[in-house]
Design goal:
Layout: H1 3-22, H2 28-34, H3 56-63, E1 67-74, E2 90-93, E3 102-109, H4 111-122, E4 125-130, E5 136-142
Parallel strand pairs: 2-5
Antiparallel strand pairs: 1-3, 4-5
């Protein structure tokens, strides 16, 4: 083999290697989120029917403010103590213990959208605990 042929073959090999590493997997972000890697949250999320109530203070708390969040390595046991979710009561039961961590960053999200993402990530059921008059007293979270 001549020097030129060797140089040409190594250039082709290097180019092929570089191009193959640039090709992405369409499902990479979904798989990364399932494994607990960072989730971008750029996709639209429907919150229709999620944590619905007529109690105005709770509706305002869930929807009116927008937040920037950057969660890393959150577990189901830690997530509800984080800002902006920590200023309401939660009744938790059967939370998963060996679940993949919730890593999530977004610059503009409501509490309702954030709770919906958490519920989807760990397959949690969320509803309201209510008092005798029908007013919500806590968010019930069940694994």
């Amino acid at each position: 083999m001549t020097f030129r042929k060797g140089l040409f073959l190594s250039s082709v090999f290097t180019l092929a290697l570089c191009l193959s590493s640039c090709v992405g997997n369409k499902n990479a972000s979904a798989e990364a989120g399932d494994a607990g890697a960072a989730v971008g949250g750029g996709d639209a999320l429907s919150t229709a029917g999620f944590l619905q109530t007529d109690y105005k203070p709770i509706v305002k708390w869930l929807d009116d403010e927008r937040f920037e969040v950057d969660y890393k390595h959150m577990t189901p046991q830690l997530i509800f103590d984080q800002v902006p979710l920590n200023d309401i009561f939660y009744e938790t039961a059967n939370l998963p213990t060996s679940a993949p961590p919730f890593n999530f960053a977004q610059k503009n999200i409501s509490r309702r959208e954030l709770l919906k993402r958490i519920a989807n990530h760990w397959k949690l059921k969320m509803s309201f605990a209510v008092d005798a008059s029908g007013k919500p007293t806590a968010v019930k979270v069940e694994g």
